Amino acid sequence: LGVEVLDHETGWHVTDISGRVRVEPYWSSVTSGLTIAQEDIGLDAYYWEAPPPYIGNKLVSYGQSMRVHTSWHAGRGDTSGTPTKEPDVIIEGAGFRMGFGNSDYRGSKNATIALVFLEHAWYHVPGGGRVSKHEFMQCLGRLQRLLIRAKYHSDQLEGTLHTAAMEFGAKGSLSLTRTRAVEDCSCPPGYTGLSC
Question: I need a labelling partner for 192 at 20 to 30 A (CA). Which of 38, 77, 121, 152 fits?
């Protein structure tokens, strides 16, 4: 399978980890990205929620990478408030919620999050327990939510999502780059798909 990249700027929302709150961001020419003001959401922790193209059966992303660039603006620079710690990326599916990363980005105003969709660097949310390959494959196979951290500082005024580029394997791709871990199976009768 050839490697393609999904990078959509439209359809993103801002939400809490439970998905009960949902706020529409706006495009900012000042920040050059999708932006959410703290006053519009008013939560201690919130996330960018990916649109439908990132959701569903994403076994074609197993072993592939995702690169996210975000930034934020805190009141009075770094002289007030404190950096926060939350999972940088959360995936949910098949009854699982898994997190990646947990940095406080102290002294920074932007983050580039680079991850690989392999179970080794992911943990269960809440609890922090290790994720097995079986659990990870189930979650990717029935991905319901992909969340990217939007709040990084207790006195944050706004947060911006600049890019969220997710690699996936595609049959018939003209890309010279090939997938690293997606299995393209020759399934027995009655079975179809990847990693069967």
Answer: 121
